[in-house]
Specification:
Growth Hormone, Chain: A, transmembrane helix, 13 helices, about 0% strand, MFS transporter, transmembrane, MFS, about 400 residues, mainly alpha, 2 domains, globular, about 80% helix
């Protein structure tokens, strides 16, 4: 079944908006990171810059979910984009140099607030702009766009900043947000979701979302599984710059390229899946993703051939990319539209909490330079996926 004309127009707008917005994010972070790194106490301010995003997101994400389920989702998205654009332009044009450091931190916090409000609505709106059976295709196209920009974005950001300067780069960044917002404003809502008539406090609305997930055990298992996987993937991201050099002094650069290629191929391949995957297949995808990591180090030790680990990294990211797309699609197609914004706020908050926890945990229990870490992480993914699959099957039988 193909996208109809209105769905295709919506998909094109969403993909272009997402691509422009992602490029703006990369440009904003690149310009500010370069500027902060040149300060006398740059490492401290970089830590403040990065940590402020996480702290703010934890507290604001639930508010974003509540607003998403109570207001018009399209309006939330484009208004947040426009405000973000205005803030970036103001930072570039009106802030004097002696206030720039504090303004950058402040604007970054404000953008994190806007992103936390916007993101649940953005994921929830897919059910309003295309039919449920087409959501997976839209997610695949978005991931393909994301992976392409992930490859080209940093180089493009560097070129832009070098030739037009930091101030003009921030101005362009603001324009990317505004373009993104204007595209979202033009979305054609095909399936309107009526907000609940019962008046409730924000706390009660969040509590209702947790009650909903406790009733929908399968969705809860999938979300809990994804949260644990994020915890383990934080360990992978932690060791990649360090343990890569156990293979070769140039391995890290090759591994980063392999990540992007694998992720892009995974996104393209996921688009070929014509129907939504059953939730139990999500566990299998992660179990399969662990295999390349398990064999990566022994393969290199046996052959001393760098191409083997490169292929393993590409295959691993191929599977992770497919999992991310199918996980989002599963939530978007199975969660009740009445609660979907709050469900996504729970998903995002869990990811925000579990990722730094994973980084600190694996940093404390592993020698980050040991190549055998890939084997342990791959094995852990397989064990967690197998355990989740057993829990899922037992719960399915109980429901049946």
């Amino acid at each position: 079944m193909k996208l109809n004309e209105r769905e295709l127009a919506n998909t094109v707008k969403v993909v272009i908006s997402n691509g422009v917005s992602k490029l703006g994010d990369i440009l904003f972070d690149y310009v500010n990171s370069v500027w902060l790194s040149k300060l006398g106490n740059g490492s401290f301010w970089m830590a403040v810059y990065q940590s402020s995003e996480t702290i703010v997101s934890v507290f604001v994400s639930f508010i974003g979910g509540v607003l998403s389920d109570a207001k018009q989702r399209k309006s939330i998205i484009w208004i947040c984009d426009i405000i973000a654009g205005i803030l970036c332009i103001a930072l570039a044009v009106f802030v004097p140099s002696f206030l720039l450091l504090y303004a950058i931190i402040g604007v970054n916090i404000a953008l994190s607030v806007l992103s936390s409000i916007r993101d649940p609505a953005y994921k929830a709106v897919f059910g309003e702009i295309v039919r449920k059976e087409q959501i997976g295709r839209v997610n695949s196209l978005l991931e393909s766009c994301k992976q392409t920009i992930k490859v080209a974005g940093p180089v493009l950001a560097m070129v832009i900043a070098k030739f037009v300067g930091s101030k003009m780069a921030l101005l362009l960044d603001g324009l990317t947000f505004i373009i993104s917002g204007l595209l979202i404003k033009q979305l054609d809502i095909l399936f309107e979701t009526e907000p609940p008539l019962v008046k409730q406090s924000s706390f009660d609305k969040i509590k209702d979302a947790f009650k909903y997930l406790l009733k929908e055990k399968i969705i809860l298992i999938v979300i809990a599984f994804a949260s644990v996987i994020n915890f383990i993937l934080a360990g992978y991201e932690l060791i990649l710059p360090f343990a890569s050099f156990a293979f070769s002094k140039n391995a890290y650069a090759f591994f980063l390229t392999a990540e992007s290629v694998g992720g892009l191929l995974g996104a393209v391949s996921s688009n070929l899946i014509q129907k939504e995957l059953a939730s139990k297949h999500l566990f299998w995808i992660i179990a399969v993703s662990g295999l390349p990591l398990v064999i990566m180090s022994p393969l290199y030790q046996a052959t001393h051939w760098l191409f083997g680990p490169i292929i393993c990294i590409a295959l691993f990211n191929f599977c992770v990319s497919v999992f991310n797309i199918q996980f989002m699609t599963y939530i978007q197609t199975n969660a009740d539209m009445t609660y979907i914004g709050r469900v996504f706020s729970i998903v995002f908050t869990a990811a925000i909490i579990f990722v730094p926890m994973g980084s600190f945990f694996f940093q404390s229990v592993m020698d980050v330079k040991a190549s055998e870490n890939y084997l342990w992480l791959g094995g852990l993914l397989i064990v967690v996926a197998s355990t989740a699959s057993i829990i899922y099957s037992l719960n399915e039988r109980r429901v049946g």
